């Protein structure tokens, strides 16, 4: 983690972090072969989240919605489906691992009525 990010984590009060942190754990390996965030950093971050009474919220898009979004960006249907499946599995692994250190809540918007 960059030192400025680490310093912000030490500040008191509510904290919101976007999806980039966990997204790097997922898309770094898928697109570059490695993540710029180490698992040690991820565990430290998750423990900080837990210590501050926080949790991870995983908003899981449906596979058809993810595939449609990728094809809308120019991917072939086959490539979009492959990336969707790989990303979904990687997110599942990441959040299952992070859940060992902090609460994780998964919300599937297509399942909410």
Provide keyphrases for this structure.
mainly alpha; two-stranded parallel ribbon; single chain; 2 strands; 113 residues; 5 helices
Structure, briefly:
Helix content is 58%, strand content 7%.
List the SSEs and their pairings:
Elements: H1 3-9, H2 20-32, H3 39-51, E1 56-59, H4 63-72, H5 77-98, E2 104-107
Parallel strand pairs: 1-2
Helix pairs in contact: 2-5, 4-5
Could you explain the architecture of this structure?
With 113 residues, this protein is mainly alpha-helical. Helix content is 58%, strand content 7%. Helix 2 crosses helix 5 (77-98). The mean pLDDT is 86. It contains five helices and two strands. Strands 1-2 form a two-stranded parallel sheet.
H/E element order = HHHEHHE
Low-confidence blocks of residues: none
Look at the helices and sheets and give the structural class. mainly alpha
Shape: globular
User: End-to-end distance, in Å?
Assistant: 38 Å
Q: How many strands?
A: 2
Determine the mean pLDDT: 86
Q: Helix proportion of residues, in percent?
A: 55-70%
- Major sheet characteristics: 2 strands, parallel
Strand order of the largest sheet: 1-2
Rg computed from alpha carbons, rounded to a whole number of angstroms: 15 Å
- Note the total helix count: 5
Content of β-strand: 5-15%
């Amino acid at each position: 983690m960059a030192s400025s990010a680490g310093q912000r984590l030490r500040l008191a009060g509510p904290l919101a972090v976007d999806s980039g942190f966990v997204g790097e754990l997922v898309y770094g390996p898928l697109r570059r072969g490695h993540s710029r965030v180490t698992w040690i950093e991820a565990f430290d971050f998750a423990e900080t989240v837990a210590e501050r009474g926080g949790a991870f919220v995983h908003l899981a898009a449906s596979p058809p919605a993810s595939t449609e979004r990728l094809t809308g960006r120019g991917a072939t249907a086959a490539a979009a489906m492959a990336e969707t499946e790989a990303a979904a599995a990687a997110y599942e692994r990441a959040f299952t691992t992070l859940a060992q250190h902090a609460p994780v809540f998964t919300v599937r918007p297509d399942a909410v009525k």
